């Protein structure tokens, strides 16, 4: 599964060129379908980032605040958290949530995660929850984040690890009904495919990995219809919206059959997703650091 949902992960395929439009459309229901997914992943990323009171934090691709709000709690009112997202509707809705929560030390703005528009050394921490793999040039984006870090700053990102086999089978079943001119969702690969690839990608961006930790959660769904609603609420809609209307019933039926393997004793669905949380610092600051840890 995925936050913005990577490739064929739980949000389906979100290609860089159309990612902003996909999430603009998803914004009203994004992380609002009663499924435990983005929140737990965001909270764990912030925990691993070890944010301290008073720090200045940038949340890249903030969505509806899965990372933003835990980070705001960690910095406290003496710190500051800025969230950026390229989808204006996502920013507007999250800004309303910030105002309702009375978080005067938080601001949310439209900006590009590929190249955030801030002066060098503006932040103690740059956080990117399940977003970097969606960018056209992820390594270039990582270099940009490194330039934004203060002398003791760190970059913390999350990317996908193993997907639940039932979820993979279900998205494959949906994709089998795409028109022949539509590309099938790609599996997670390339610069974030595994720990070795992540480390090499960070090295190429002038960053040194200090830890890579796996984190898993179980997400529960009332039934297949609930799962489909959830898929529409995030990057998964990039797959669903390309299915012709007359093919949707058959596609959904095939996905339901694939999801039978995930049914629990109560008749609902339980799917497990793994992410990797990577902590890195600029390479010129790593002379005295211990070797990276991998869990």
TrEMBL record:
InterPro entries: CFA/CMAS, Methyltranfer_dom, SAM-dependent_MTases_sf. Residues 52-165 form the Methyltransferase domain. This is Methyltransferase domain-containing protein. It comes from Micromonospora sediminimaris.
